[in-house]
Design goal:
Elements (H helix, E strand, L loop, with lengths): L4 H15 L16 E4 L3 E5 L3 H22 L7 E6 L12 H8 L3 E10 L2 E11 L4 H15 L5 H13 L11 H9 L5 H6 L8 H16 L4 H12 L6 H5 L3 H13 L26 E7 L5 E7 L4 E11 L14 H10 L10 E3 L5 E3 L5 E8 L4 E3 L3 E2 L3 E5 L4 E7 L10 E10 L9
Parallel strand pairs: 2-3, 3-5
Antiparallel strand pairs: 1-2, 4-5, 6-16, 7-15, 8-14, 8-16, 9-10, 11-12, 11-13, 11-15
């Protein structure tokens, strides 16, 4: 016989609350001989972690929950129960239900979601079972939040991709910060296509490699300024079980997403910012003609940015850039030639050569090495054959140079710096691109 929903809700809450009066954390940081129970506003944690580690885990879980609750605009409903295991030898037989024990023995985690329905209403309860590494409890807690709040976690690619993001999410930081092993794998592997990620017959728990590709796609879509505004509504539709699909959300942006997805993987590094490296697909381009120059503002802390100029392969163009920028927070300002302004001014006054050794490096505020070539204005040509976008090899520009276009297409510019270190750059250059005599055949 089915119980009325209010009674079911009361029974569930009482079950959780009764456990909240369990043993308090022990003093010190020695691993307990048996599991201890801890609680926070939204989590009820059973673990054999040392007390300070258990409290640190609860703080991380609460911070992550605040971030994902804000992202999905839904508060967490109820308490999420978690079993987090350092060593199964500490746990009495039968304390961990069988549904979670096998996954913990395998060095992984799983989330159990139980939904009770009555009278057209439903109530979901999630329980996390996880090994005590740094990422797995947070990954599983994302599933638990979705299951408990929405009653579902969405399709596999979205569910696991967002859970992988959850274990890395930090407040006010959208940069890539992933496990080195995952970074090395994504850098060295042939990229899995978006279609393979979204439509392959894959399943939860299949492989960490598949999880890595799902993370990469979700991270791109969540933070790239071209796609983020559609990604959140798409995810909410998945979680609300509304009819939708990846194609419905992004069908008119397929080529651009494929290009930026492969670009992201090609330049992946710790600290990479998709929001700073989003490509501007809206800027209008035209071929420079006569003596008129096309002007653009190029920011030091962004990736490739549009110059507004269409160039022709083999044709010559003049590039003039004014202003200065910095490639680290407290670094000396540099010109478009990548030369520190102080050295440039001193040598101009003395008529001497700069004493910058090309092999010498300077130190920024954080001790990051700053190569003397960093800060140089760089160019690349984006070609479009109506099927695929292609990039030329990047080439050096500078403050006042003539260059030969390596391909037909649109000229993009950026400040030379490591892709994972753009965020602390400062400054903007004003760049003017003018055609030389043999550039008249550039196509509009």
């Amino acid at each position: 016989m089915t119980r009325p929903l209010p009674l079911l809700a009361c029974l569930l809450v009482c079950c959780l609350v009764s456990g909240l009066a369990a043993a308090k954390p022990k003093d010190g940081n020695a691993a307990p001989a048996e599991p201890v129970d801890y609680r926070s506003d939204h989590f009820y944690l059973h673990t054999d972690l040392p007390p300070s580690d258990a409290q640190e885990l609860l703080e991380r879980l609460e911070t992550m929950l605040e971030l994902i609750s804000t992202y999905w605009a839904r508060p967490c409903l109820g308490i999420i129960e978690c079993y987090v295991v350092v060593d199964l030898a500490h746990w009495p037989t039968g304390m961990i239900p069988e549904e979670g024990l096998a996954h913990i023995k395998a060095g992984a985690g799983v989330t159990s979601v139980t939904t009770l329905s009555s009278g057209g209403q439903s109530l979901s309860r999630s329980v996390v079972y996880s090994v005590a590494d740094r990422g797995t409890p947070q990954h599983e807690a994302v599933h638990a939040y979705c299951g408990q709040t929405f009653g579902t976690t969405g399709p596999v690619w979205y569910s696991e991709g967002m859970a992988e993001m959850g274990q890395y999410w930090r407040k006010d930081d959208t940069s890539v910060q992933i496990h080195e092993g995952v970074l090395d794998y994504l850098r060295s592997s042939t990229p899995k296509s978006i279609d393979e990620i979204v439509h392959a017959e894959e399943f939860t728990g299949d492989s960490w490699q598949n999880y890595a590709w799902r993370w990469a796609l979700c991270h791109l879509l969540a933070y790239n300024t071209n796609y983020a505004s559609r990604f959140r509504p798409l995810g909410l539709a998945f979680l609300k079980k509304e009819p939708t699909s990846f194609e419905e959300a992004y069908g008119d942006m397929t080529r651009e997403i494929e290009f930026e997805y492969h670009f992201f993987l090609s330049h992946l590094d710790q600290g990479f910012r998709n929001d700073l490296c989003s490509w501007d697909w809206q800027r209008k381009f035209r071929a420079p003609k006569g003596s008129a120059a096309l002007t653009s503002k190029i920011k030091a802390d962004h990736g490739w940015q549009p110059s507004g100029a269409i160039v022709a392969a083999g044709a010559d163009y003049q590039c003039k850039a004014t202003g200065s920028w910095q490639t680290a927070k407290d670094a000396q300002p540099r010109s478009a030639d990548g030369v520190e302004r102080e050295l440039r001014n001193r040598d101009h006054q003395t008529g001497g050569e700069t004493d910058n050794d090309p092999d010498e490096v300077n130190e920024g505020e954080k001790g990051d090495a700053i190569d003397d070539a960093d800060g140089r204005l760089m160019g690349v040509v984006l070609s479009d054959d109506d099927e695929n976008y292609r990039l030329s090899e990047p080439f050096e520009l500078g403050g006042d140079v003539t260059f030969t276009a390596p391909a037909d297409g649109k000229l993009y510019l950026r400040c030379r710096d490591s892709w994972g270190k753009l965020a602390d750059n400062k400054g903007t250059l004003t760049v003017k691109i003018k055609a030389k005599r043999n550039a008249s055949r550039a196509r509009e």
